[in-house]
Backbone:
């Protein structure tokens, strides 16, 4: 067990009035134990009590090794997976991870009607929001690799390019840099397809004048990189130029206000107001960003409705966009690390308007 991280979780449990929690998120279990397990249909549950007792209930198939400070309780495929966990619970309130499948929770409550479940993700989620030195180093390294990959991807934008083929090329580049396996895929969007912020690459062939949105992201040694750059092929229209410069200005305006104590909603507002003032407000259709770390999308939420406040150690995206249906899309995204007196932008690929040939 990582004792420093566990101590943060225990403090958060005390803050939330929780005496016991069950953690099932693969990333959260890894954060505390160093075990990376993708359980699929099987059960993985880390049980933590306020007194610091930690037990990991896991299928023997996962082949986990014992470690100091963590009791390992194994079951077989032929066992009722929740039986040992049910017996270990204290009566009363149980904080339950938002990621735990209902089939396990329902079985648990059937065996223990004296237990009342409540949403209990916050103690770990809030601890994970503040990256420690090792995590910051991992995220810097991942973003450095992302800078290299996006430049190689831009260099591959040429006549005859196909969205799905360019996306596969990006995946291959990541593999060359030692990226982990990910089922997310890459977002490569040509021309009008870029007006869909989450367009899935298909057989679309690049045309002269197209915007090219490259939203590329993958975990590298468990920690995610995530960046978007937009370029134009061979030419850019006056409208495309206006949209691009507006999005770039919004990205820079938001990053300029990031410092400890600034509400996330104010960071969102810094970008959104600039886009609204340019007349494109209805075409910025999503929040400004999301936290990033062991999960690509994790707290804190960087949006107009977020209650969070920027604090040192937080890492989140700043990704304003303008999406004009039937025409084009432009998004520019960086990951930023909140420092003691401002922020560090983790991505360094150019944000100047680029027309490639």
Residues:
């Amino acid at each position: 067990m990582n004792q420093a991280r566990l101590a943060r979780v225990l403090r958060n449990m005390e803050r939330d009035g929780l005496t016991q929690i069950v953690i099932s998120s693969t990333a959260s279990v890894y954060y505390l134990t160093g075990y990376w397990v993708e359980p699929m249909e099987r059960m993985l549950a880390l049980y933590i009590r306020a007194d610091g007792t930690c037990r990991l209930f896991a299928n023997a198939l996962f082949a986990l090794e014992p470690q100091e400070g963590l009791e390992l309780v194994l079951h077989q495929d032929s066992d009722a997976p929740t039986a040992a966990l049910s017996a270990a619970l204290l009566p009363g309130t149980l904080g339950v991870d938002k990621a735990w499948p209902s089939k396990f929770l329902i079985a648990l409550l059937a065996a223990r009607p004296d237990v009342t479940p409540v949403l209990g993700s916050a103690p770990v989620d809030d601890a994970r929001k503040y990256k420690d030195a090792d995590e910051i180093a991992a995220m810097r390294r991942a973003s450095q690799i992302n800078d290299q990959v996006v430049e190689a991807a831009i260099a591959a934008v040429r006549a005859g390019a196909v969205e799905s083929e360019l996306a596969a090329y990006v995946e291959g580049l990541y593999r060359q840099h030692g990226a982990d396996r990910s089922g997310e895929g890459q977002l490569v969007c040509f021309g009008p397809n870029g007006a869909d912020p989450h367009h899935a690459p298909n057989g679309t062939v690049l045309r002269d004048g197209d915007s090219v949105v490259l939203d590329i992201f993958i975990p590298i040694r468990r920690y995610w990189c995530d960046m978007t750059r937009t370029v134009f092929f061979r030419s850019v229209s006056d409208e495309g130029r206006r949209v691009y410069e507006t999005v770039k200005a919004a990205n820079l305006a938001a990053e300029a206000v990031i410092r400890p104590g600034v509400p996330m909603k104010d960071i969102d507002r810094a970008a959104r107001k600039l886009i609204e003032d340019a007349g494109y407000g209805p075409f910025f259709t999503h929040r400004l960003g999301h936290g990033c770390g062991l999960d690509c999308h994790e707290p804190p939420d960087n949006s107009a409705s977020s209650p969070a406040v920027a604090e040192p150690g937080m890492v989140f995206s700043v990704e304003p966009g303008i999406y004009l249906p039937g025409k084009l899309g432009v998004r520019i995204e960086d990951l930023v690390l909140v420092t003691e007196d401002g922020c560090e932008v983790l991505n360094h690929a150019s944000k100047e308007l680029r027309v490639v040939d």
Remarks:
- The radius of gyration is 22 Å.
- The longest strand covers residues 223-233.
- The mean pLDDT is 97.
